[in-house]
Write a structure and sequence with these properties.
The complex is a heterodimer.
Chain A lengths: L4 H16 L2 H19 L12 H24 L2 H8 L1 H6 L5 H35 L4 H28 L3 H29 L6 H9 L2 H12 L4 E4 L2 E4 L6 H27 L2
Antiparallel strand pairs in A: 1-2
Helix pairs in contact in A: 1-6, 2-3, 2-6, 3-6, 3-7, 3-8, 3-10, 6-7, 6-11, 7-10, 7-11, 10-11
Chain B lengths: L1 E10 L2 E11 L4 E5 L6 H9 L6 E6 L2 E2 L2 H9 L1 E4 L11 H11 L7 H7 L15 H12 L6 E5 L7 H17 L3 E6 L2 H4 L5 E6 L2 E6 L1 H7 L4 E7 L4 H9 L3 E6 L2 E6 L4 H10 L4 E7 L3 H8 L1
Classes of the chains: A mainly alpha, B alpha/beta.
C-alpha cells in the first residue's frame, strides 16, 4: 500500500493531538513508574526486594502489561469514528478525494505511533534501570518484550477500530470496550483453565495451542515466555507444555494477523456503513 | 458540468430521493430549496458520492463516474456540511491546512484563505474559542482550501445573524468574481437566497417539483403580481374596476387595496388605473418571490 500525503496528514493530526494533550507523556510516565515498581518489588512475596534477573522481571512485567495495554489501546481508538461523526468532520473526509482505506490507515498510523512512543519511552526508562541493576545478560529478552508489547498494543488498537465502526454511540463503545478487555485479559484464560479441569487434561496440546492463538493476550504471553527460555505456559497455577511448532516466528505471524484482520474488517464495515 | 439522471435513494422503506434528474451548469449558482425532510441533504450527498444511489446515474462532463472518476471529481469539489464543529485543539490555520492536505490543496494558502473569509485575526487562535459565525467562516475556508470548481453548501447561513449572512454571501461573490465557480446551495431560508441564485430547484418528499430561473418559474406557475393601492375613499369602486379588468383576490384593508394581477394583464390593469388616477394616491407593484414559488409548487 502506498502511504499518501493525505494519509500522513491524518496520521500527523492524530499524533499531534496526543502529544499536545500530554497523553504520550502521562502514559510513558505511568508505564515507567509501574514497570519499575514491578521490577523492584516483584519478588516481595518471597521476601526479596530489588532488581532481579531479566527473566524474572519480564515474567512479572508480562502480567502487568496484559492488563494495562489492552484497555489503553481499546480506549485510545474506540471512539475514533464516533468523534468525527459527532464533530461533523466525517462528512468532509467522505467528500474528499481520500479513500476509506487511506482514512482508516492514517488514523491507525497516528495512534499507533503515539502508543509506541509512550510505550518505548516508559518501558525504555525501566529497561535502562534494569540494565544498570541487572547487567546486559538477557537484555535481548527485554527488547523482545518491548517489541512484543508494542505489537499487543497495535492488536488492541486494531480491535478498537472495529469497535468504533460497529457502534456509533459512545456509551456502547465504552461498554463493549470494557467487555472485550475483561474477556481477553481475564475471562478467556479462566475458560481455558475450566476446560482443562472439566476434561481432566484430556484436551490435547495441539487443540490447546489453537485455543491460545485465538486470544492475542495469550499469544503475547507465550512469545515473552519463549524469549526467556520458558517452554511452558503458565495460566495461574496450571502449566501446559507447548508443541514444538509453537515457535516465535509462528506466533509473531499470528500476532500480525491479529493486527491486520480486525483493521481490514473495520475498513470493510466502514465502507458498508458510511458509504452505502 | 454535473448531471444527475433519474437518481433515487432508499433508506429501508423510506424513499428519500425519488427519480431526480438535474443538470448543474458550469458557473451558475443553483439554489436547492424545500422543507425539512424533502431530500435536499440526501441529494447533495448523492452528488458528492458520499452515499450511493439505489438507482440512477451521476455524469461528470457527460461521462459516468467510476471509482477513480469520483476521486477525480472530489478533487474539484469543495463541500461545506451543515453542522460541523471542527477540532477545538487546532488553530484556524491548522484546520484549513489539514483539510487542504487531505483534499490535495496547498496548505500554505491557509492564511490567505482565512483572510478572504474574514478570519485573519483569528488564524492563530484555537477553534475552541471561535463563535458560531467564525466556525461557519472556517467551514467555508476549508471548503475553498482545494480551490474547487464546484462548491456545495448545505444550509450555509445556519446560525448566522443577518449581518453575518450578508458578509458570507459577499465572500462567495468575491470568489466567483475571481474565478468561474459553480455553486450549489441548499437552504430553507428562501428570502436569503432568492436574489443570489441563477436557478432554483424545488424539492418535496424526495421529488424535484420544479427547476428553472425564478422568471421561468413565475411564468410556468402563473404566479400573479401583487398590486397595492392607497385608495381615496372606501375603495369599493376601485376594487370593482380592478376586478373587471382581470384582477383576482381583491382585498380592502382600510385605505389599502391589494389585488393579485395575472402577469399577462399587467399593462392592461396599469392602463385602467391611469384612467382613474383620482381614485388612489399611491401605487406599488411587487413581483412574485421565491416563497410564492415554493408554496405554488407545494
Amino acid at each position: 500500500m502506498v502511504f499518501t500525503d493525505a494519509m500522513w496528514a491524518i496520521a500527523r493530526k492524530e499524533l499531534s493531538d496526543k502529544l499536545k494533550s500530554r497523553w504520550v507523556i502521562v502514559i510513558a510516565v505511568g508505564f515507567a513508574f509501574f514497570t519499575l515498581v514491578i521490577a523492584y518489588f516483584g519478588g516481595a512475596t518471597s521476601g526479596v526486594a530489588g532488581f532481579r534477573n531479566m527473566e524474572a522481571t519480564v515474567a512479572s512485567l508480562t502480567s502487568l502489561v496484559t492488563y494495562f495495554i489492552p484497555i489503553l489501546a481499546l480506549t485510545l481508538g474506540g471512539g475514533i469514528i464516533a468523534d468525527e461523526h459527532d464533530k461533523g468532520t466525517l462528512e468532509i473526509y467522505l467528500a474528499s478525494p481520500i479513500s476509506p482505506a487511506e482514512f482508516i490507515t492514517g488514523k491507525f498510523l497516528g495512534l499507533a505511533i503515539a502508543l509506541s512512543l509512550a510505550m518505548v519511552a516508559g518501558l525504555g526508562i525501566s529497561g535502562l534501570a534494569l540494565l544498570i541493576g541487572s547487567g546486559m545478560k538477557a537484555f535481548a529478552s527485554y527488547l523482545v518484550f518491548m517489541l512484543n508489547s508494542a505489537v499487543l498494543g497495535f492488536i488492541f488498537l486494531s480491535v478498537s477500530f472495529l469497535v468504533s465502526v460497529l457502534f456509533r454511540e459512545r456509551a456502547r463503545v465504552i461498554a463493549f470496550t470494557v467487555f472485550l478487555w475483561l474477556f481477553f485479559s481475564v475471562l478467556y484464560d479462566l475458560g481455558l483453565i475450566g476446560l482443562l479441569i472439566i476434561t481432566k487434561g484430556a484436551v490435547g496440546n495441539d487443540v490447546f495451542s489453537i485455543f491460545l492463538t485465538l486470544n492475542p493476550v495469550d499469544v503475547y504471553r507465550v512469545i515473552n515466555f519463549l524469549s526467556i527460555g520458558e517452554l511452558k505456559v503458565f495460566l495461574g497455577l496450571v502449566s501446559v507444555d507447548l508443541p514444538a511448532y509453537m515457535k516465535t516466528p509462528v506466533l509473531a505471524a499470528v500476532s500480525l494477523a491479529w493486527v491486520g484482520v480486525p483493521l481490514f474488517m473495520s475498513y470493510r464495515l466502514f465502507k458498508k456503513r458510511y458509504l452505502a | 458540468m454535473l448531471e444527475l439522471i433519474d437518481l433515487s435513494k432508499n433508506f429501508g422503506e423510506i424513499r428519500a430521493v425519488d427519480s431526480v434528474s438535474l443538470k448543474i451548469r458550469e458557473g451558475e449558482m443553483l439554489g436547492l430549496v424545500g422543507p425539512n425532510g424533502s431530500g435536499k441533504s440526501t441529494l447533495l450527498k448523492l452528488m458528492l458520492g458520499i452515499t450511493r444511489p439505489t438507482s440512477g446515474r451521476v455524469l461528470m462532463d457527460g461521462k459516468e463516474l467510476t471509482e477513480r472518476g469520483w476521486k477525480e471529481l472530489r478533487k474539484r469539489i469543495g463541500y461545506m456540511p451543515e453542522r460541523v464543529v471542527f477540532y477545538d485543539n487546532l488553530t484556524g490555520k491548522e484546520t484549513v491546512a489539514l483539510f487542504a492536505r487531505i483534499k490535495g490543496g496547498d496548505p500554505t494558502r491557509a492564511e490567505d484563505l482565512l483572510k478572504s473569509v474574514g478570519l485573519a485575526h483569528a488564524a492563530g487562535r484555537k477553534v475552541g474559542g471561535y463563535s458560531k459565525g467564525m466556525r461557519q467562516r472556517l467551514n467555508l475556508a476549508q471548503a475553498l482550501s482545494n480551490d474547487p470548481d464546484l462548491l456545495v453548501l448545505d444550509e450555509p447561513s445556519s446560525g448566522l445573524d443577518p449581518v453575518g449572512t450578508k458578509e458570507f454571501y459577499a465572500i462567495i461573490d468575491g470568489v466567483r468574481a475571481r474565478k468561474k465557480l459553480t455553486v450549489v446551495l441548499s437552504s430553507h431560508i428562501l428570502a436569503e437566497i432568492e436574489d443570489r441564485i441563477d436557478r432554483v430547484a424545488v424539492m418535496k418528499n424526495g421529488s424535484l417539483k420544479a427547476v428553472g430561473s425564478l422568471e421561468e418559474l413565475y411564468t410556468s406557475l402563473k404566479l400573479p403580481l401583487k398590486v397595492t393601492l392607497s385608495v381615496n375613499g372606501a375603495g369599493k369602486e376601485m376594487a370593482a374596476l380592478l376586478q373587471n379588468a382581470g384582477a383576482m383576490d381583491v382585498v380592502i384593508h382600510g385605505s389599502r387595496l391589494v389585488a393579485d394581477v395575472p402577469r399577462a394583464d399587467k399593462l392592461k390593469i396599469l392602463s385602467t388605473l391611469m384612467e382613474r388616477q383620482d381614485g388612489f394616491h399611491d401605487l406599488s407593484i411587487r413581483e412574485p418571490n421565491l416563497e410564492e414559488v415554493f408554496f405554488g409548487v407545494h
